């Protein structure tokens, strides 16, 4: 029979201490690893929540900006509509002034002895019909019309001799031309 005698008991104790220390270190390392993993997971989760809240804020802000852009587009369309209306009003104002300017300029076109019966205005196109005592006065009127810088496209449509009016013989005439008022000429330049 063989007996197992330990002649060096301090080695056994040293081995036991090494085992205990090893298991203690393993448990400590595992505990540290689990805790660091848990802290890292918790940190990453909080960062994800923070990033998600930032993303939500940015999406809300973007939707607000989209609404503002849509409002600005509406305002831009309203602005364009107002500009269009303003241009129409300006054109009407110029047409209103055209009549006044033409009536102010008319005496310079018509010599003594020529009488206007009818004036028809359609935009810038004007037709005049009337009577004249003599053909030379009609020629003088036509010369004045052609020399005016305010008139263009002058056409004498008819001259009829010997028309009796007021118990006297006159020449009737019909003339048309385009009139550009001085206010329109200034606005064009």
From TrEMBL:
InterPro entries: Extracell_DNA_Util/SecSys_Comp, PilN. The chain crosses the membrane at residues 21-45. Pfam families: PilN (PF05137). PANTHER family: DNA UTILIZATION PROTEIN HOFN, TYPE IV PILUS INNER MEMBRANE COMPONENT PILN. It comes from Vibrio ouci. This is Pilus assembly protein PilN. The keyword Cell inner membrane does not apply. It comes from the Bacteria. GO terms for biological process: type IV pilus assembly; type IV pilus-dependent motility. Keywords: Membrane, Transmembrane, Transmembrane helix.
């Amino acid at each position: 029979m063989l007996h197992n005698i330990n002649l060096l008991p301090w080695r056994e104790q040293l081995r036991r201490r090494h085992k205990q220390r090893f298991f203690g270190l393993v448990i400590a390392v595992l505990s540290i690893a689990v805790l660091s993993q848990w802290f890292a997971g918790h940190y990453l989760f909080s960062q994800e929540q923070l990033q998600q809240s930032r993303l939500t804020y940015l999406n809300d802000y973007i939707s607000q900006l989209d609404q503002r852009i849509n409002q600005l587009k509406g305002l831009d369309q309203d602005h364009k509509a107002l500009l269009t209306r303003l241009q129409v009003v300006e054109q009407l104002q110029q047409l209103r002034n055209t009549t006044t300017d033409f009536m102010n300029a008319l005496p310079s076109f018509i010599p003594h002895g020529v009488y206007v019966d009818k004036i028809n205005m359609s935009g810038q196109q004007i037709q005049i019909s009337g009577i004249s005592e003599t053909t030379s006065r009609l020629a003088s009127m036509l010369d004045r019309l052609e020399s005016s810088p305010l008139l263009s496209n002058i056409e004498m449509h008819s001259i009829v001799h010997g028309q009796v009016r007021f118990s006297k013989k006159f020449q009737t005439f019909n003339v048309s031309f385009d009139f550009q008022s001085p206010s329109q000429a200034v606005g064009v330049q």
